[in-house]
Amino acid sequence: MRSLSHKERYLGALFRKEIDCVPCAPELFFLVPARLTGLKFYEVSPGSFFLPKFHKVPLWKAQLGCAKFFDVCGWITVFPKMISNDLEEEANVIYRNEEVVEIHLFKSTNKMVFREVFVAPRDDAPWLLERPVKAFEDWIEYKKFLFPPSFEIVAEEIEEAYKETGDAGIVSLAISGLFFDLLISSREGGLEKVFEDLFEHPSFFKRLHREFIDHTKEKMKAICKVTKKFDEFFVGCSYSAIPIINPKLYREWEIPFLREITEFAHMFGKPLHLHQHGRVMGIIEDIAEAGVDLLCPLESPPLGDVDLGLVKRRFGDRLALKGNVRTRVLCEGTLGEIEAEVKDCIYKAASGGGFVLGTGDQVHRDTPFENIVFMRELCKRYGSYPISVTSG
Known about the structure:
This protein is an alpha/beta fold. The chain has helices at 6-14, 31-37, 59-70, 138-146, 156-165, 179-186, 190-200, 202-226, 247-267, 284-289, 308-315, 327-332, 335-349, 369-382; strands spanning 74-78, 81-83, 88-96, 99-108, 113-119, 127-130, 152-154, 169-177, 232-236, 272-275, 294-296, 320-325, 355-359.
């Protein structure tokens, strides 16, 4: 029997089938791919609007090169390019010693100009220094930028990524973050000001939430109108994590969104992959009931609270699972500790299919390359079906 490709293994696990071997897909999202290119990190780093202007290598190409370098299943994320006459932006760059240190982004509507500021280290991920919505009243105009009334999706990059990836991995279209990601990343003052706004203007945010869902669905529809050459829709999570928000808020705002867009994705024959940070044990039942197909990164304590064996037993018939190898162990652990970690994950979650061996968030920038190779080899050793590894 021939050995299956990385893509075939991933898709088999996604649809909860036992295949030849557990797919190995450590989350090589940005830090390690950027490091491998030898470029400054802001020349590779993610971002759907402004950072591509500074790219020397598209993020998805860096990810694909990284996956091939380590011979693991690539998780190739593409941010679909959206063109709208309603969107205007420009970026001013501050340099120090010939290095970019800050990126000032100006977003314009017909009435207002909004400014965001990002710090751009050469060897680490950019971070947000200033958000565009300075007061509640700004939301009224800023939402026109978030949800333009008319737009087009450009298919070329999606199809190029799909063609170049081939069987080396899966192409995942990043269509959105969760609702609180949008609110907190947009509002100056962050979480505290978002809660104030929600408390003082509940009806406005109910309408904004509806617009957010409808716009995401329109984007998905526009994508599928121009191309079907991708493997899954992907929703990320930055701030919509427990305990940043509580389970009650998650059920009120995030679950309705997930339910609608998952159903919409299935209408187009595409699965929905959710990247949910933090403590998920209190909301995983809701996520499964919303119809989500694959859940990652399944963080262990102290950052998360996932009991992988329990999650597999309770939800493995409804959810494909990806992740759980602790990034600290992969970065700093001994070979024995890494082996124990990988073996334990496979033992707890791989039987019956539906498990992708991955990491509990993206692999640390300084992780020794030989440790990533070792993780791959351990996956082959212990992850061949039928699974025979024991907890001891």
